[in-house]
Structure formats: C-alpha cells, structure tokens
Design goal:
Elements: H1 2-6, E1 9-10, E2 12-14, E3 17-19, E4 26-31, E5 36-42, H2 46-61, H3 63-66, H4 69-85, H5 87-98, H6 102-123, E6 137-145, E7 148-152, H7 158-171, E8 175-179, H8 186-197, E9 205-207, H9 212-220, E10 227-231, H10 234-246, E11 251-254, E12 259-263, H11 269-281, E13 291-297, H12 301-313, H13 332-347, E14 351-354, E15 371-374, H14 381-384, E16 391-397, H15 400-408, E17 412-413, E18 415-419, H16 423-432, E19 437-440, E20 455-456, E21 459-460, E22 473-481
Parallel strand pairs: 1-5, 7-8, 7-10, 8-9, 10-11, 12-13, 12-18, 13-16, 15-16, 18-19
Antiparallel strand pairs: 2-3, 4-5, 6-22, 11-21, 14-15, 17-20
Helix pairs in contact: 2-9, 4-6, 5-6, 5-8, 6-7, 11-12
The structure holds ligand TXE.
Length: 484
Amino acid sequence: MDEQQKVATHKLFINGDWQSASSEQTFFTHNPATETVLAEVARGDMADVEQAVVAARHALEGAWGRLKPKDRSRLLYAASRVILEHAEELALLETLDSGKPLPQARKEVVSTARYFEYYAGAADKIHGEQIPLGPGFVNFTIREPMGVTAHIVPWNKPLNILARSLAPALAAGNTAVIKPSELTPLTALKLAELLAGMGFPAGVVNVVTGYGEEAGAALAGHTDIDHITFTGSAATGRAVMKAAAEHIKPVVLELGGKSPLLVFADADLDVVVREAVKGIITNCGQMCSAGSRILVETAVKAPFLEKLTAAMQQIVIGPGVDSPDLGPLVSDIQYGRVANHIDIATSEGAHILYGGGRPPHLARGYFIEPTIFDNVLPDMYIAQQEVFGPVLAAITFQDEAEAVRIANKVPYGLVAGIFTNNINRALRLATRLQAGQVFINDFYTGDEETPFGGYGQSGFGREKGLAALHNYTQIKNVAIRVRA
Ligand code: TXE
C-alpha cells in the first residue's frame, strides 16, 4: 500500500479537462518487468462515457465541424511533430507500462507520428465524385465524417494501435472517445495532453480509462456513437459487435491470428531464421500478426530447426528499459495463458525443442523464454489457437498443396509469410493463402500505408493506408434535376 501511495494519479480527459471518475474510483497499473505498481488511474464507467460522448458530439457540431479540411490537415501535421518531440518520453512510458523493449517502443512512437503525418496528407483530399446521369441531371457524391467514433484499444501496442484508428478518424473530420486497455492506459493519456496543448478543440479527443466490462462495454453499447474500432480478443470482439448490433452501429474488428511462415526447401534458410525470430519475439510474441506457425518442407526441417534453435540461444531477455531482445509478457494473467498453452501442447504430444519456461536469471517479472515446439500436428491446440507469447509451433509439409491446406486450416487469417526463391510459386501462393497481408521472403513487411486486416476470425474491415479512411466516412449522393 505504501508503494501504491507514491505513484502518480491519472485522471480522465473529457471535453478538454482532466477529471476524476464520477464514482471517484481508481485502479492501479503495474510494471510487468518488476511486478511493482506503476500508476493510479481513474476508473471511468458509464457516467463518464456518457459525458465523453456528449463532449465529442458537441465538438463535432461546433468548432471541429467548422474547421476546413486543410486546417485539420495542419493540426495533424503538427501533432506528428509534437509526438516526435516527445518520442523518448512516450517510448519510456510505453516500456514501463507494457514491458516491451525500449527500441521497440521507440519504433512504435515513430510509427505513431507517421500515422498522423500520413493522414494529415489525406485530410484535404477526401472527396466524392461526379457521376454522369445524362442530359438534365447533375449528380455528385460527398464523403461525410461518420460522427463520434469509439476506439477500444488493447495493451500490446497501446499508443500505436490507437494512432492507427485515431489519425484517420480525425483526418476525416470525426471526433473520438478512446477507451485504452486497463493494463496500459498511460500513453493514450499523454497523447491527449499533447493534442490538447497544440490546439485541438475541446471534446475532439476524449479518453475514458477504466475496465473493459465497465467503461468499454458502456462505450460499445452507447446509442450516440456512430462507429466502433476494436482491437483485441475474438471473445471481446464478439461482445462489442453484439453491443453495436443493438443500435446498428458499424464496427471494425481486428482480432488476432495464427499466422504461418511457409518455408520451402529452396529458401535462404538464414533469411528465414532471421525473419522467424523477429516474427515471434517482437513484443514478446504479443502481436496479432505474430508468425506463430512455421510450416517447413520436410527436406529442410532438420537444418532449419538447428539454425533456428541456435538463433534463439542468442536472444537476450530482460526488462524493457535495458533494451533486450525480449521483454516480459504484459501481466500475470497473460503469463498464465501462455504457460497454459505450453502445458496443453506438451500434453498433446508436441516436443519442446527450446525454451518453455521462466528464464532462470529473472526471479521477478512476467518473463518467459522464447519457445519452439517440434512434432506439432496441424490439428493440435498449439497449431490452431493464438498463444500471444513467444511460442513457435513447427509443422512439416511434403508439397505446396499440403502447405496451403495446413496454412489455411485455422480459424484466423491475418498475415502469412512465404519463403522461396521460386517467384512463380510465391505469387501462386500469395493468391491462395487466406490472409489480409502476405509477405514474401520477409516478415512484418509493409507500413502505415499498407491495408491491414483479417480473414475469418481475425476480424473484418481494413486499417492503415487510404483504405482506413473508408471506415470513418460515409458517402452521400446528391442528385439534381436541372430544369430547362
Ligand atoms: O483482451 P480484450 P485481453 C488476444 C490475445 C490475448 C487475448 C486476451 O490472444 O491473449 O486476446 O487479451 C476492452 N466491452 N488479444 O483479455 O479483453 C479491454 O478493456 C468493450 C489480441 O486483454 O479483448 C481492452 O481495452 N470493451 C489483440 C480491449 O477490450 C471491452 C490484442 C482488449 O481487451 C470489453 C489484445 C467489453 N465487454 C489481445 N471487455 C490483437 N488483436 O492485437 C474488454 N474490453
């Protein structure tokens, strides 16, 4: 308790003001590398969400709605610059809150700034078209903002995933109510502070911290929001979609994956190893697009797994602030989930080739070794379900047809990597894999410009790129009869 009394207290950000939760309740967040209390945060609920939605509606109909697109654009460019000016502070906050290695947090902050820059460039280019109806008619379309947008954000890339939806929503003229994860709310609050300090009108960006089943559910089920963007688990995505269905609100859902790397015998195995390691240890495997299944052609399985194991042995594990390769998982609950996946895989007959436990030199913190499972069969739990930790499942295939069959036979379809020196095979498979993004001879390829989203239970809708702007605008058609 003494420890808890020393930490900073964070309030809700509603209508340009910092305020306590109307219930006066708070909760604590923890540093996953030390298990110590990091911050005390306001526990918003339905009453606070109500205030935030009213503020966002008011801003939409007021100062924000009257801004010219080019002025929105200038504000977004300025936001990008301010984020970069505070990059080190934001990165450190993210590392302390989520556990991720500082260099990864820095990259995510740079990408956050880039989202604002990218959509700043688009803000004054969101226009409709003229559609010819023949003599006597003029017809055109307008792309209007959706209105008040809700952003329910997870803990794995808290600031970056928020920017991924917030920047296009603002560029298109919407206002926003943000519900960060209760595990990692600090960078969303800092971003709101930065945006307010640089001239975004009150009510345009509101942050209601709190628990998912309280603030999150209240936001998802609110009658006066116009759109919901949700990133998180499939189970919560389903709950959000049901709440949205009650009031017929559109949703974009990004729900994770079980993404494969297809490794053919003609691939450069050193490249594959480098990309496979990156694909599973980045953010401690807590990536919706983590490459968590290695599908390897039987002929090269032995040399490939030998190289992969050797690479894993080089991984440095430690607190994020020490800039290791691998930080801790985000929470004790997530540690329990990952450990449970490892137990189930072992009981189903998969073989631990490397890792599988807590690193012996780290007594505190939610650390887990990078882990490789061999002898995995495609129907095993470890081959079907998202682990969200640094755990790889290696599965063999005999030929291309079998590789595609195994790759596609999971509930998810977010990304896929193909490793081969045969360009015809690469392009053939790119069309056959059920995944929203396909990487060839690389992994996590693409940037803020490239559309991102899933097939199957990975969700629907596309974020990033110009495609994301469609989430935050609706088309109105105006048809005019010209009388003689
Ligand atoms: O996610 P939740 P959890 C996956 C990953 C992980 C699992 C569970 O497999 O192990 O989900 O993580 C808010 N109404 N991903 O339980 O619950 C919550 O407060 C409205 C994949 O932490 O989905 C948080 O802000 N909102 C992933 C957000 O939902 C609710 C990222 C995500 O939390 C709510 C994270 C409710 N009823 C986890 N309940 C990805 N796709 O990148 C919770 N929330």
